[in-house]
Design brief:
Strand content: 5-15%
Distance between the termini: 54 Å
Bound molecules: iron/sulfur cluster, zinc ion
Strand order of the largest sheet: 5-4-3-6-7
Number of helices: 12
Number of strands: 9
Helix content: 40-55%
Shape: globular
Low-confidence stretches: none
Radius of gyration: 20 Å
Length: 310
């Protein structure tokens, strides 16, 4: 089979677009999708200092590599790779080796923020304590909090995260299924910042998860393939399996759901759920009540902050 864009042999089949592509045309298509996201959502600007969340996995490897090349082309953009070490034995340490390898190859220095250093205990230690929730409920909140802290301390004006198309539609569907109107109205491709919160951008929004993995492989980027041992516990896993099955039987379902989300986003500002934000009395981060979610969880786990979260 030949590539539909050039004379080379194809090596990738894109079912939803009925395309057979060679590796170079496929990689260029992924890069064009990131450029499209940049264009549609005004993600990168000259003068930006962008913290890039790096995990050692395929998505953030593709993200950092593509942003690095885009930043060089646009000019006057500084990228600062940051990683969070949750302290999950047998998993994150291996992934961080790959993250360091990638950053070194791009001439960038990786900053690592660990749960143990900043929150007083690793995730593994937290999970051995009395608790009311599953691993991902704590981990998701702490991870977001530390990424924000790292971005603030780096002086970044944006935080780029490796959320791909699958991640975005999973979150959209989870918010719908949980009837969480506040999160639904706040969730977007480029979030607005507020005091203490660095605006987040998602340049991989148009790139499906499978294509991130293929891209990272075909571009020979170092990444760790292993999965977190807790990943199957999350509600996200249920939604992910459902969407994968729907896509398999009805190619194009994922892009259709993404388009529904983006169309809805255009009318959502009018139904934006207003929520007064105050400063957390423990750490000063913006939150809805007296304490932010991270401080509530730390309190439940009988931990206290080793330093401020902002
Ligand atoms: Fe944390 Fe859950 Fe992700 Fe593992 S799967 S890194 S526990 S949020
Ligand atoms: Zn080709
Ligand atoms: Zn707090």
């Amino acid at each position: 089979m030949k590539c539909i864009k050039c004379d080379n042999d194809s090596c990738v089949e894109i079912a939803y677009a009925r395309q057979d592509l060679c590796s170079e045309c496929f990689c260029r298509q992924v890069e064009k999708r990131v450029a499209k996201a940049n264009h549609e959502f005004s993600l990168l600007r000259r003068g930006d200092k962008i913290a890039v969340g790096v995990s050692g996995g395929k998505d953030s490897a593709a993200l950092l590599y593509i942003l690095h090349n885009m930043a060089k082309r646009i000019g006057e953009i500084e990228l600062i790779p940051i990683a969070v070490d949750e302290g999950i034995q047998g998993y994150r340490s291996k992934a961080l080796v790959k993250a360091h390898e990638l950053c070194n190859s791009l001439g960038l220095q990786l900053r690592v923020y660990s749960y143990r250093e900043h929150l007083g205990a690793s995730l593994d230690e937290m999970l051995s304590r009395e608790r009311s929730m599953g691993a991902c409920s704590y981990c998701g909140v702490f991870r977001k909090t530390l990424l924000n802290k790292a971005a603030l301390e780096a002086g970044a004006n944006k935080l780029a995260v490796g959320h791909n198309l699958d991640d975005v539609i999973q979150t959209f569907l989870m918010n719908l299924l949980r009837n969480d109107a506040v999160k639904l109205s706040r969730f977007g491709v480029a979030s607005e910042g507020e005091a203490g919160l660095v605006p987040r951008i998602k340049p991989l929004v148009f790139v499906p998860e499978r294509e991130c993995a293929l891209y990272a492989t075909l571009r020979n980027l170092p990444f760790y393939l292993g999965e977190c041992p807790h990943s199957s516990e999350a509600f996200r896993g249920v939604v992910k399996n459902f969407l994968n099955e729907a896509e398999e039987k009805h190619p194009g379902t994922k892009f259709a759901l993404l388009n529904s989300f983006l169309s809805l986003k255009q009318v959502l500002p009018e139904m934006q759920v207003k929520q007064e934000s105050t400063a957390c009395k423990e750490c000063g981060m913006p939150c809805a009540g007296n304490k932010c979610q991270a401080c509530l969880y730390l309190c439940e786990l009988k931990l206290s902050l080793t330093d401020s979260l902002r």
